[in-house]
Amino acid sequence: MEKKKKEKKVQKQTDFKQKLEGCEKLRDEYLAGWQRAQADFSNYKKEEAERAKEILDYVQREFILKILPILDNFYLAESKVSEDLKNNADVDGLLKIKNQFQEFLKTQGIEEIETSEKEFDPNFHEAVEQAEAKDKDSDIIIEEIEKGYILKGKVIRPAKVKVAK
Known about the structure:
By secondary structure, this protein is of the alpha+beta class. It has a domain of 53 residues: Head domain of nucleotide exchange factor GrpE (Nucleotide Exchange Factor Grpe, Chain A, domain 2), CATH 2.30.22.10. The chain has a three-stranded antiparallel β-sheet. The chain has a three-stranded mixed β-sheet with strand order 2-6-3, with no helix packed on it. A hairpin with a 2-residue loop joins strand 4 and strand 5. The chain is rod-shaped.
């Protein structure tokens, strides 16, 4: 009788250990699944943040590209102002607006592409004309037709230039 009690006790302990091992295995599976889900969610959040940043960058770039022709017209108007009108209050007011546009673009991270006396670089410049220039080497920019701009290290509009042959 004592032996049967002992066998029952051993059997209960064995059953308990098997149940415990089963529960531990199930716990490990749930933990691994939860960790995978947490990592997937973290990756999803990063991807969505990156997508949102790309959308904002695109919107900013498109907005800036729509503003640039206005600034181009200010540059054109400034180049056409005669010397006797340079001190006119109305002209001065318009030129201040141009300067405000320039400052606004700088605060948005916009940089002008340098062209003066630079060598032509197709990554930054678009050659719209070639001309003979006796005092310039070949592929040197001799005139800027339209300003080019860089936003966050990327060209959003290449500078249109006249290049020496």
